[in-house]
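Before the break, one more example. Copy the sequence into your notebook; we will annotate it together after we see the structure.
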Amino acid sequence: MKKLFKQLTLFIVPILIFLFGLDYLMSRYLKNTGEVFGNVTSQYDLYKSRIHEPIVILGSSRAEVHIDPNVIKKGTGLDCYNLGWSAAESELLMYRFNEYCKYNPLPKLLVINLDMTTFNTQQVARIIRDEQLPFNLYNFEAFHFYDKNILYYLIPGIRYSEKRFLIYQTLLLGIKNQQLETKRYNGFISSDSSWDDTQLKKILQSGPRTVIIDSSAIKSFCSSLKYLQEKNVQVMLYYAPEQQASFPLYKNRAEVLALYQQIAQQLQIPFINYAKGDIVLHKEYFYNAYHLNRTGADMFSHMILTDILQLFKDKLPFRK
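Here is what the structure looks like once it is written out:
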């Protein structure tokens, strides 16, 4: 029995040493990969308690690529951070914000982007993105998002086992002591891509969709906003511009927008629908139906800046 135990130990211990070493190196060097594996820099800022900006933008990619924190900072005199995260529906959106609150101070103003599918019952969050991997080990709050066995995220190194290119690229940068330049500024990244409606046309061929609202997600979201209000955090909701060609995609588009207005009225916070403005008429401001290009993002950043100054002029210490 002792001999068997010794043999097992000699077999298992080197494997564990290797896995722990791999996990440590991957988690350490992944931050040097720029945008190769996603929104890595923002993840490190969040979990390393580097976000102290009084204005925080929260939402999906339609926040991430639309609002330039530098524009907000120049206009208000207050620093701003963009926590937008691609494909973030309500549960994942609030998970991201809760993680932010665990490691960083509450903002003075939280600006939240709502999409047509933010509370859609068919939206399923899965935190298995490369940029999230270094922070998922033993993160019990995130376990219910995983689409793999929980043990996959309890054993160091295993979470990287299917990421061969990530391992190669990340360790190569670490060995070279090299860091790729990030294109982001406080979480924001813009695109110079030109208009392309190829994907939209394919989606429209299948006919308009119906957004089925998850009432429990609405309830949880409102509960979180009430908590923030109790903590004296100012909150603003908005619906980002989308090119008008996308309007027929959802049958109950008007009803969903009316629901967002109702939520805002009940909580006594502002909600602004920017899809009503002139910007939605011009394809040259978009690179696809839902996302603004660099020119459009700059225009929209100034639009939302104007409303922030107007709505919160007596509630926040803006630069005079």
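Residues 2-311 form a domain with the Rossmann fold fold (CATH 3.40.50.1110). Residues 83 and 96 are 8 Å apart (CA to CA). Try to locate both features in your own notes.
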